[in-house]
Amino acid sequence: MKLKPLIAMSAVAALLLAGCSGTSGGDPTSGGTTKPTTGNTEGGGGVGTAALTIAKPDGAITTESHNPYLGDSSASKYAYGKVIFESLALVNPTGDLGTTPWLAESVEWNEDYTQLTVVPRKGVKWSDGTDFTADDVIFSYDMVKSGKLNDTSAHNITDIKADSDKVVITFGNSKFTSQARVLHHPIVPKHIWEKIADPNTDPLTGEGMAVGTGPYVLSNWSTESVTLTANPTYWGGEMAVPELHYVSYGDNAALTTALVSGEADWAQAFIPQIKDSYLAADENNQFLVSPTAGAGTLFMNLQTKPFNNKALREAIAWTVDRQAYVDIAREGASEPIWSVSGLGDLLKDEILPEYADKNYSVDVAKAKQILTDAGYTWKDEKLVDPDGEAVSFSISVPAGWSDWNTEQALIAEELKNGLGIDVKVDQPDWGGWDEARQTGTFQMIIHWLEDTGNAYGLYTSTMDPKWIVDDKAQFNFGRFNDPAVTKALDTYANAANEGDRAEALKVMETAFVENVPAIPLGAHPLLGEFNTRNYVGWPSTDDQYASGDPTQPGIVMVLTKLKTA
Length: 565
What we know:
- The chain is of the alpha+beta class.
- The protein has helices at 12-18, 74-78, 134-146, 179-183, 190-193, 252-261, 274-277, 310-317, 322-329, 364-373, 402-419, 430-439, 456-463, 483-494, 498-515, 555-561, and strands at residues 52-56, 89-91, 99-101, 104-109, 115-120, 157-163, 166-171, 216-221, 225-230, 243-248, 266-267, 285-300, 377-379, 382-384, 392-396, 422-426, 444-447, 468-469, 472-473, 518-531, 535-536, 563-564.
- Helices cover 26% and strands 20% of the residues.
- Belongs to the bacterial solute-binding protein 5 family.
- This is ABC transporter substrate-binding protein.
């Protein structure tokens, strides 16, 4: 299992400056210790003179708001809020999927993940000089419990209390599959926020309001850029990067130009022909692909022809080339998922022994045999179903999603050449696509998964009826429904012990293998473009202590590990 709760060493400042990562994945109910690892040995250390410009391709953001709880605030959209307001711990979405205590010296879950015990870090100050205490932790979560702050992450907190030097938070249901959401809740200063009438709307733009414990403090805000400077009293030590500039460009093309010219230093974006357009421009330019437990996935409408026949779904699973998806559609920015379990390499410890060596491949002969055995035939090289009707369907992805638009064309070609299926490539606008996926009026779509850092994400996304409310689906777009699987999903998410969770996994995984309700193509990655001209110590393929995506909570860990080049 994954998302292992850890207990940090007390000398965290030394740990951060030396470079740290969570422990390896394992039993998430067991304790552990965050151990210092060997940090980057390049560079001279100390404070640099160059700022880092962090860029996005989303156009200018015209409304100033530093509220970290609002998804549409400039702090959230630019993502600069993550270096001002910190959380109790950082859950790595890639690499070892480990948990590193941050504003907490330790975080520990009880056996069924309904209670979290936290030891707040000592010696931390807010950027206005006020001491950080357990009261700030209690206050930050109590806003959700009391209803003052909307519970957008479904924390369902029932109790918060101080216990000696600890804070104990109790939840109304297990948080095993949503540990990251709980632990990444921004911690804010009680002495400022208790005076805020409505934290759901306050933009936090008043003088002295954007106060955090993070490594950077707000210096200047404009619609063109946001500037932050290093927090001189940061508990984690002195930052090598003295200043951060956040800039948003009009589109990916403008962003790419900025990265190539050196105008921008750090970004997360899918850049077509990235080797030629970015990497070849400067040997210091780097591109990091960080696979996550999620996946780009083919969802099929299981309620109507042609996908109400499992044989067709299985045949397609033996025909679609996942490596082509990675190499051509994603231009290398992914990892193929071939396991019949649907789980990628990050979750290989959750693949049942009976499926450990069972993988799909491109095997058209096998696919045709499956179809023949199920009563399918061919006429004029076109596939005909058992009812005598030619098999055809559409695959839908919004226009402009270039990687998945390319995959649409690949799949259409693969299925036409291999199985004689006429596949229509449909590229509607977002609104039309969204309506079809929710109401079940599509035939096949490519979509992402709910990423929970474990097998539950795939199986709830593809087989859980809980996602269908008022006949509209947020996941499980194919509307798979098996009471035994539904029960197993609930057990996995709420089990009080690993034995029950393991038994539930058997039911879920077996059902997925036997029913082929969806077809994962490749790991959904977090992407990062950055350069090593002025700073080194970035995460790498060999050391994914965090992703290279500057919009993720792990940006604070990256910044603490950077050294002057």
